[in-house]
Amino acid sequence: MKASVFEPKDVLRYPRLDTVLMIERELYKHRSEKTITQIWKSLPKKVMWQTYSLVLDYLEYSGKIIVEPDKTVSWIWSPVGVRQIKDSGLVMS
Fold it and tell me: Which fold has domain 17-87?
């Protein structure tokens, strides 16, 4: 089985870390309440749609979110759950 790698195509502008973190916070705050367009419009700073889409693709690839068929975003990453697994000794850091 070949390991998959996140390789975006035709990217004009890559997001800065503060932009990725801002989008993550908004997605986590709204969880499954709003669509991707509604969340994009509610961001504290303006972000180009292409940049926003790239961040969504990355977060979906990394297993933090799922974009539902109705275009709502479900946050599935659980840092508390990961911490509990590490503390139990099941995963070595």
Answer: Arc Repressor Mutant, subunit A (1.10.10)
Q: Among residues 60, 90, 92, 89, which one has the least CA distance to residue 77?
A: 60
At CB < 8 A and 24+ separation, what contacts does 16-20 make?
Answer: 19/45, 19/47, 19/51, 19/55, 20/55, 20/58
- The Cα–Cα gap between 53 and 51 comes to 5
Q: What is the largest CA-CA distance in the chain?
A: 43
Q: How far apart are CA 35 and CA 43, in angstroms?
A: 13
pTM for this one? 0.78
For residues 47 and 23, give the distance between their C-alpha atoms in angstroms, rounded to a whole number: 9
* Structural domain spans, the chain: 17-87
- Give 38's DSSP letter: H
**pLDDT tens figures, 6-15:** 778 788 778 9
